Amino acid sequence: MTETNDSTVQAAGCVLWRRSPFDGGLELCLVHRPKYDDWSHPKGKLKRGEEALAGALREVAEETGYSADPGARLPTLCYLANGRPKQVRYWAAEAVSGAFAPNHEVDRILWLSPAAARDRLTQPRDRTLVDDLLVTVRHA
What we know:
Nucleoside Triphosphate Pyrophosphohydrolase, alpha+beta, 7 strands, seven-stranded mixed beta sheet
């Protein structure tokens, strides 16, 4: 069992994917947050007492408008955010239904090939999750 410092921000998210409606290829959903002017996987802070997977799926719905079917657990990322340690747990998740509508947190989303998503992600640490997803989807 791992212990986390009480000051560690707990968050969760998904590497959201779908099969392209055009050619059946794999597409990943990235979100643009105007507050930070960055491109990332949908994620957010957990509410008090919220299970990580439930929080990850809630964040996907809030940020992208899509409901998702969770798959394999992906690596947890740990880093400093605004001077505080942050731990983000991730899952692979297939988009099953929904539609995007801009909101105060996310003004745009993009569905991109894995290579294009890797290039578009702002934070290098998020790029490794693309590779991790590709392994899980290939073995699914």
